[in-house]
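Morning. Coffee machine broken again, so started the prediction first thing and wrote up yesterday's gels while waiting. Chain of 185 residues, entered below exactly as on the submission form.
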Amino acid sequence: MSTSAPDDALPLLLSQREKFVSFVEGRVRDRALAEDLVQECLARALAHHAELRDAQSPEAWLYRSLRNAIVDHWRRIGARERLSEELARQAETAEDSTSAPEIGRVCACVTKVVAELKPEYTEVLERVEVDGMAVKDFAVSMGISASNAGVRVHRAREALRRKVQATCGACAAEGCKDCTCSVRV
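Came back before lunch.
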């Protein structure tokens, strides 16, 4: 779609609704969900009408909005799956009769490896993971956006995971509960 008169943007987008639904459905594999996501993005277009009017191409603006909605959808699905897995793991752990000596053999490599990370990763892990600070509050304290803070937390966790795996090897896959490396608490 080429550029159009500002007041024509919404009607033109609405006239192409089915094309947008097909685009989203191809990525989420669910017609009803695709229709919901398109509806949300069209509602957002209506709410941001001034931004849409100033856009070079309202169609490109809406596709960008749809792509973001699709990514957000898959992130939510991934987060739900990870939470379910973690809750299942915690339930199994609670049911197991864990002996006191086994608890004392938790790997100390994590402490050693954290010190080797970039200072900004160490700081975010200490404040968010250890101190329990909300990512949003961490962002405010650092003067960065919440999304930037979220990315920093994710990258720090990934860097820590890779370093622990490199240090501990196979036992890292099991959560270092029965660590076989040389550094222990």
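Confidence is low (pLDDT under 50) at residues 1-6, 97-106. Going to sketch it on the whiteboard this afternoon.
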